[in-house]
Amino acid sequence: MKQVLKLRNLKVVFPTSYGLIRAVESVDLDIGDRECVALVGESGCGKTVTSQAVMRLLETPPAVIRVDSIEFDGQEIKDCSSKEMQEIRGKDMAMIFQDAMTSLNPVMTVGNQIDEMYMRHQGDSKKEAREKTVRALELIGLPEPRARANSFPHQLSGGMRQRVLLAMAFACMPKLIIADEPTTALDVTIQAQVLKTLRGMQQGCGTSLLLVTHDLSVVASIADTVYVMYSGKIVEKAPVKELFTAPYHPYTVGLMAAVPRLDDEKRKFTQIPGTVPHPARKPSGCYFHPRCEYAREICRKEMPPLQSLGGTRKVRCHYPLTAGGESHE
Amino acid sequence: MKKLKNIGSLLKRIWGHKQGKVGLVMVSFLILVAVFAPIIAPYDPYDVTQRAAKGLPPSSKHLLGTTINSGQDIFSMLVYGTRVSLLVGVTSGVCIAVVGSILGVMAGYLGGFVDSLIMRIVDIMLVIPTLPLVIVLTNVLGRDFWIIILIFVALGWTGLARTIRSLVLVLKNSNYVKAAELAGASRWHIMIRHILPGTSHLLIMSTALSSAGIMVAEAGLSFLGLGDPTAISWGKMLADAQSGGALLFGAWWWIFAPGLGIFLAVFSFMRLGIVMEEIVNPRMKQTSSVYKLFRSLDSSYIEDVFSSMDEYSQIGAKGLQGGETHEASVKA
Amino acid sequence: MKYTYVIKRVLYSIFVFAIVITLNFFIPRIGVDDPAERYYPPQGNMSEIEYEIIKQVTRQQYGFHVSTWQQYTNYLKGLFRGDLGTSFRPGSPAVIDLIAARLPWTLVLSVSTMIIGLIVGVLFGVLAAVKRGRWQDTMLLNASTVMVALPAFFIALILSFYLGFEWEIFPAYTDPNMVSNFAWTWESIRRVAQNAALPILSMVVGSVISYAQGTRNAVIAVTNEDFVLTARAKGLKQSTIRYKHILRNSMLPIVTSLGMSISGLIGGQVVIEQVFNWNGMGTLFLEANNSNDYPLMMGIMLLLSGFTIFAILVTDLVYVLLDPRVTVGDRR
Asked: What confidence score (pLDDT) does residue B318 get?
C-alpha cells in the first residue's frame, strides 16, 4: 500500500515554569493511501500535539520539537520553510478542529472563510471561489448553501458549523485530512450524521484520514487502523477489528470498558482508576503502571519497548494480555 | 481566626513572588515612614521661618534641599507627605472594597430591581468625568480630609462592584450555594457566609490597586490646590514648586522629590495588587515568561530529555540483549 | 435585530443623559435649603437684613423665586434652547458663549492627543505582540509599569522644566498672544503648534502606553484563539492571517476601551491645562470653581458628560459594525 504519511520518532516538549512538559515521546505513525487511522487516548496524552506537529502547526516557542522524518506523500517536509508549508497546508493536508464555534472566525461569513481556500490555493477570483464554495457546501449536505454562505458562524447550528469545517477541509481535495475530535462538541445524533458525512467524503474524495479522538465508539465506526496513545507514547497499534476483539494492552482494555455498551448487560461500565500522569512528572518505568492492575516489579522499573506481536500489531507492555484478559506469560 | 490564617498564607505567597517581595518591602517601608515621620524628619516641615536657608540644593544638611520661597526642608515635607498619601489612599481603598463588594454582591445575588438599579448607577457614574465631578463635590461639600475620602469612595466603587457582580453571577450557580439555599438559609446569610468569602481574594487585590489609583487622584487634586488645605501632601508640594518658581530657578530637587514620593507609593501598591492578581489568576502570567524561559533553556538538558525518550536508550538501560530482541521483533 | 440594538442603545444614552441633567441640576442644591445661599454665601461683615436683600436679588436674578419643580422645568426648557444659564462673571455672559470661546482650544489638545496616542499606541502594541517576549515587548511592559505610577501632571512639570525652561525648545507656558492674536495664518498656526507641543506630549506619553498595552494584550489574546490556528491550517499567508483575521478581531476590545477611557482623558486634561496655563475648558472650569461660579461649572460638567455619553455611544455603534454577534443585550 502507498504511504501518505510516515512519521518517525517525533518528540515534543514544552518548557514551563513548573518543569518540562514531555508531551510526545518518540512517536511513529504510518498512514496509508485512503486509509483512516485513529489516534486514541485520554485528554492530555499528546494526541493533539502529535497531529499538529504533523502539519507543523506547533509554534516554536513554546514547543521544542525533534523529529527524524515527516514524510508526506513521498516528500520530506520536516525541513520545509514556513512558506513551503503554507503551500502544502490546506491544499494537500487539511485539518478539522473540535469546536467549530471557536475554530471559525466570528466576524467573517462562513462563505468568505471557505472562499479563502480556493483563492489561496487555486488562484480563483472571489466570484469563482464563491461558486465553488456553494457547491462544496451543497455536497456536504448543508441546506440552502448560497444563503448559508452569507451567514456568520454564530447564526448556524453546531452541526452546520461542523459541516462548514468539513467543507473547508475538503475544499482542495487534500491527500490527508487530520480531524481532531471532530464530533466531540456535538449532540450524539448529530455526531453520527457528521461522522457519516466525514466517512462518505473521505471515501468519495480518496483522502486519507487521521482521526484524533478519545471516543472508541467513533473509532469503531470509521477507522481502519488504531493507534492507542498514553502519556506521550504509543502503547498499542492494531487493525480496528483485531483491537476490539483482542486488545493486548491493559490500558486499551480499560478504555473499552469505559465505553457504555447496550448489547452486553453483564459487562460492567468501569473506569480506569487514577488519572493520566502530569506530563511534567511522569512515573518511572511503564507510565501506565500506577493504574495497571497487572503491574509487577519490572513495570515499575523499566519502560517496555514497543514490540510486534503477530501481523501488524504492536504493543508496549511487559506482559501483554491475550483475548481472554489473561497475561501472556 | 480562619480569616487571619488566610491573610497570613496570602502574605506568604506574595513573599514567595519576586516582585511581590519588592512590593511588600516598599509598602512596609512607607508605612514605617508615615508612622515615625516626626522621628525621621530632621526638621519641622511646617517651619517657614528659615530665612537663611531658602532655595538650598540638596546637601548633607538638607538632604533634598529647601524650598525657594519659604525655606522649608523638602526631605521633611516628603516624609510627612507620606502620611496624607497613605492615609487617604489606604482608607479610601478599604472603604471602596467594602462598599463595592456589598453593592456588587447585592446586584449579583439579589438580581432583579436591585441589580438594575445598581448597574444603572454604575453606567451613569461611568459617563460623568470623575475629576471634574470630584472638584464640584469638594466645592459643594467642603475640603475636609474626611470629606475628600468620602467623595473618593462614593465615586470609586463602581468598577469593583461590576467585577464582583460578574463573579457572584458565577458563584450563585455553584453547588455549595445551591445546597445552602435548599437547606433553607436566608438570603442575607448566604450572601455574607457563602458568597462574600468567595470574592475575598478579589477584594484584597482591588484594595491595593484602588489605593494606588486614589493616591494618584489625591495628588492631582492637591496639585490643583483643592485638597485639604492644612495638610502637607506631595501633590501640593508640586503645586507650590510650580508657583514658587522651582521651574524658573532650576530647583529640580523641589520637583523630583514629591514626584519620587508619588511614584514610590503608587508603584509599590500597584505591584502588590498586580502580584496578587497573578497569584489568584495564574493564567494572566504565563505569556511572556514562557518566552523568557524558552530562551534561557539549557540546550544540553533538553537534549538529555530528548535522548531519554528514545527506545534505544530505554533498552540500553535494560541491557543489549533486550535491545536486540526488540529490534528483531519490530522487523518481524 | 441589529436595528433594535442600535435604537435601544440610543434610547438608553438619552435616558442616561436625562439622569445626568437632573443630577447636574441638584448637585449645587446639596446641603442648602435655598440655592441662593449656595450662589451667594454669607460674608462675614454682613447684617442679616443686608443678606436677606442680597438673597432676594439673587433669587430673582437666577429664577430661584419659584418652586424647585418649576426651576427644574425652566432649566430643562433653557437646555432645549441651548441656554446653559448665565455666569457670575462681570457683565453676566452666557455660559454657552464662554464655553464656545474655549472649546476649540481644548479640542486642539484632546483631539491631537487622541489621534497620536491611538495611532502610535496601536502600532506599538501590535509590534510588541508580534515580538512577544523580545526587547520591544519587555520595553513596553517596563514602560507601562513605570508610567502607571507617574501622574501626567508630574510628567508635564518635568517636560516643562527641561524642554521649556532649561533647554528652551518649546514654550513652558502658553503664550497669551496665541489666543488673542489668532488668525488663520501659518504664523499663527505654527505658534499654536509650538505652544501645544508640551501639553500634548505630556498627555500622549501615558495614552500611547496604555493603548499599546491594551492592543498588545488584545492581539495576543486573539492570536491564541482557535480560529487563528484554523487560518494557519488553511495555509493562508502570514500577512492575510495577521491583517484579515487577527487585527480585525483585536480591534473589538480596543474600541470598547476607547469609549471607557474618555472620561479619564477629560479629567487628565483639566490638570494639564492648568500646568501650562492653556486657555481651554479645563482652566475655565478651575476658574469657575475658584469663583464659585456654579452655572458655569455645571454647564461645563453637562457638556463634558454629554460628550462622554456621545463618545461611548459612537464606540458602541462602531463595535456593532465590527462584530456581527452583537444584537440585543448588554455585552459588557
From this structure: 38
* A321 secondary structure, DSSP code: B
Strand partners, A5: A31, A72
The order of strands in the sheet holding A208-213 is A93-96, A176-180, A208-213, A36-40, A225-230, A233-239, A314-315, A307-308
Q: Which residues of A touch B332 (CB under 8 A)?
A: 308
Say yes or no for a CB contact (<8 Å) between C172 and B247: yes
Enumerate chain A positions whose Cβ falls within 8 A of a Cβ in B. Answer: 9, 11, 13, 15-17, 20, 22, 25-26, 61-62, 64, 66, 302-303, 305-308, 314
Q: State the distance between the two ends of chain C, measured CA to CA, in whole angstroms.
A: 18
Q: Helices marked H in C184-293 — which ranges?
A: 186-223, 226-233, 238-240, 248-276, 281-290
The domain tally of chain A equals 1
**Contact B65/B74 with Cβ under 8 angstroms?**
yes
Cβ B311–A13 below 8 Å, yes or no? no
Query: B225 phi and psi, to 5 degrees?
Result: 80, 20
pTM of structure: 0.81
The Cα–Cα gap between A1 and B175 comes to 55
- Pick from A266-280, B182-196, C60-74, C218-232 the range whose average pLDDT is largest: C218-232
Integer Cα distance of B177 and B197 in angstroms: 12
Residue C36 in contact with partner chain B when CB distance is under 8 A: no
C-alpha closest to that of B64 among B237, B267, B186: B237
For chain A, what is the mean pLDDT? 84
Q: Which of B226, B212, B192 is nearest to B101 (CA)?
A: B192
Could you give the CA distance from residue B64 to residue B258 in angstroms, rounded to a whole number? 10
Q: pLDDT (tens digit, 9 = 90+) per residue, C136-153? A: 888 888 888 888 888 888
Residues of chain C predicted below pLDDT 50: 328-332
Q: Is residue A24 part of a domain?
A: yes
Beta-strand runs (E) in chain A:
3-16, 19-32, 36-40, 64-66, 69-72, 75-76, 93-96, 176-180, 208-213, 225-230, 233-239, 307-308, 314-315
The yes-or-no verdict on residue A233 having pLDDT over 60 is yes
Do the domain assignments include residue A244?
Answer: no
Cis ω before A61 (30° cut-off from 0) = yes
Which tops the pLDDT comparison, A47 or B72? A47
Q: Are B70 and B83 in contact (CB under 8 A)?
A: no
Residues of A in contact with C133 (CB under 8 A): 61
C-alpha cell at A234: 504509543
In a domain, A308, yes or no: no
Q: What is the CATH number of the domain that holds A212?
A: 3.40.50.300
Question: Who's near B146: CB < 8 A, 6+ residues apart?
Answer: none
Domain that holds residue A173: 3-223
Cell 507510565 belongs to residue? A287
Reported ipTM: the value is 0.86
In a domain, A321, yes or no: no
Measured between alpha carbons, how far apart are the two ends of chain B, in Å?
69
Q: Say how far apart CA C197 and CA A300 lie, in whole Å.
A: 73
Cα gap A271→A291, rounded to integer Å: 11
| Cell digits of residue B216 | 494618584
- Alpha carbons B260 and C88: distance in angstroms, whole number: 40
Q: How far is CA C44 from CA A47, B90, C36, C89, in A?
A: 85, 38, 17, 22
HSE, CB side, 13 Å, CA atoms: give it for residue B189.
10
Residues 6+ positions from A206 with CB-CB distance below 8 Å:
A33, A34
Q: Does C138 touch chain B (CB under 8 A)?
A: yes
Q: Contact, A161 vs A153, CB < 8 A? A: yes
Which of A25, A78, A32, A29 is CA-nearest to residue A56? A78
Mean pLDDT of the region B100-121:
91
Helix, strand, coil fractions of chain A, as percent rounded to 5:
35, 25, 45
Name residues whose C-beta falls within 8 Å of residue C71's C-beta, 6 or more positions apart in sequence. C25, C35, C63, C64
